[in-house]
Specification:
The protein has helices at residues 2-21, 35-46, 49-62, 67-96, 101-109, 112-144, 149-198, 201-209, 228-241, 248-251, 260-292, 302-310, 313-346, 354-372, 376-403, 409-429, 432-438, 453-475. With 481 residues, it is mainly α.
Length: 481
């Protein structure tokens, strides 16, 4: 146990050392960062323990249809981003000299209120989401080391907070790259162990196909389910693959690009890493039904149980390090962008020296405090944060990259506010999975299974098009509608 404790302590100090050695002169800009570091950092930010453990457990219940989520992450969430979004984002960021995504959109559309609005929802939602990431990592650390969950939480919060303060965005990217490598090793070890246990990938898939169908896999474990179950898998793929286009912590990674050639180098590396980490974890988790049997009802225990059965003690600690790396890399990205949003976007401060340290300390303390509490509101914010932010940013962001600013500031700001509001209202009154517990109402039938990212984005798009057309009418000299 002492040797394993030293492994964890060495890991924490190594992260701090990397952050210190690679720090940037500007806390919100990355400076020069290579393609390999960018690829690993992008994946490490993208994938958290929620994906590896939570979605991994869903693979046990749903089978290979969950690989649709992994495929969406690789092609829509990575290839499409670097092919069509990353470099145009970098060009606008360089042209406007912006330091946060909210500032980029605000300057582009010349709407100062938009920066405050987007900065406020980003700092709040991402701080609370970060608290769930911290809590999950703390529970895992407390499970492998003889310390309490609260003690583990305090240590993890301090390590991430200090590394963000010391390294700025460049330091965060390098620590995430290290954590991405650890994730590859941990998931690779589990995948090797389960393929050995089931007799290889072909034999494993044959055995999985022979299992009887269940309500969660109503067409068997090798096919997409019909009805609401299959629809939920499709929407999960969209939320995690398209919704991420507008996540501030990922948009900010594009600020590190130096050329289209570098974007072209980064894309295949990121796709490869993501395929190994997410594809490998989901494939292993789907096959886990052959090892664990049909008796598990809580998906969150699938991965820990599988790891405990298949890996020796050292392997278990390596995999635990991979899951903690997934959590801390995401947490550092969330704390960094939340601190930048709070300090620069909401408070209007030029963040350097103590102003930067104070912003990080406030966000870190808030995230740690939320992690100590459990409530339905905090759980709701954690589970909806990506969707709410996507509905607020996606339409004006894509419009900026496609057609520039010709739609006008009114269209951009109104679409942002209305998209956010539409998603909140659908969560509360339309989406059966959440609205029945919140308001007691839900949309009828299959409509009630429609994830809020769709109505929220549609509302945002409709408002944007309406006001953009009105703006064009005014410019052409006709009376406004």
């Amino acid at each position: 146990m002492v040797g394993f404790a030293l492994l964890w302590i060495g890991y924490a100090f190594f992260l701090l050392f990397i952050a210190r050695r690679t720090k940037s002169s500007d806390a919100l800009l990355p400076g020069r960062v290579g393609a390999a570091v960018q690829a690993l950092a992008y994946v490490a930010t993208y994938i958290s323990a929620v994906a590896l453990v939570g979605f991994g457990g869903l693979c046990y219940m749903f089978g290979m249809q969950m690989l649709l989520v992994a495929a969406g992450n690789v092609w829509l969430g990575t290839w499409f981003v670097y092919k069509y979004l990353a470099w145009p984002t970098r060009l606008w960021q360089r042209k406007l000299n912006s330091r946060t995504p909210a500032e980029l959109l605000s300057k582009a559309y010349e709407v100062p209120q938009m920066q405050v609005f987007l900065g406020l929802i980003s700092s709040l939602l991402l701080v609370v989401y970060g608290s769930a990431v911290f809590k999950g990592a703390a529970v895992l650390v407390a499970g492998v080391l003889p310390i309490s969950v609260n003690a583990a939480l305090l240590i993890l919060v301090c390590v991430v907070g200090v590394s963000v303060v010391m390294g700025g965005l460049r330091g965060v990217l390098y620590t995430e790259a290290v954590q991405g490598l650890v994730m590859i090793v941990g998931v690779g070890a589990l995948l090797f162990a389960i393929l050995k246990a089931v007799g290889g990938p072909v034999a494993g898939m044959r055995a999985l196909a022979a299992l009887p169908a269940t309500p969660a896999a109503n067409k068997g474990f090798m096919a997409l389910s019909s009805g609401p179950v299959g629809l939920n898998v499709i929407f999960l793929s969209l939320v995690t693959s398209v919704g991420i286009w507008a996540q501030p912590q990922l948009i900010q990674r594009h600020f590190a690009l130096r050329s289209t050639a570098e974007a072209s180098k980064t894309a295949p590396l990121a796709m490869l890493v993501l395929s190994v980490v997410v594809g490998g974890a989901y494939f292993a988790s789907a096959l886990s039904r052959l090892i664990l049997g049909p008796g598990i009802t809580n998906p969150d225990v699938v991965m820990p149980t599988l790891v405990h059965q298949l890996l020796p003690a050292l392997g278990q600690h390596v995999f635990a390090l991979a899951i903690v790396s997934a959590s801390l890399s995401t947490a550092s990205a969330l704390l960094h962008i939340a601190s930048g949003s709070l300090g620069r976007d909401v408070l209007g401060k030029h963040l350097e020296g103590w102003s930067w340290r104070l912003a990080v300390i406030l966000c870190t303390a808030a995230s740690g405090a939320f992690a100590l509490k459990t409530s339905s509101l905090i759980a709701f914010i954690c589970s909806t944060s990506w969707t709410l932010i996507a509905c607020a940013i996606l339409v004006p962001y894509l419009a900026l990259l496609i057609q520039g600013t010709k739609a006008g500031g009114r269209a951009a700001f109104a679409s942002s506010v209305c998209g956010f509001t539409g998603a909140v209202l659908w969560f509360a009154f339309g989406y059966a999975s959440t609205s029945l517990n919140i308001s007691g109402f839900a949309a009828p039938g299959i409509i009630g299974a429609m994830h809020p990212i769709l109505p929220g984005t549609l509302v945002s798009f409709a408002i944007f098009m309406l006001l953009a057309k009105n703006e064009e009418t005014v410019r052409n000299g006709s009376p406004a509608v």
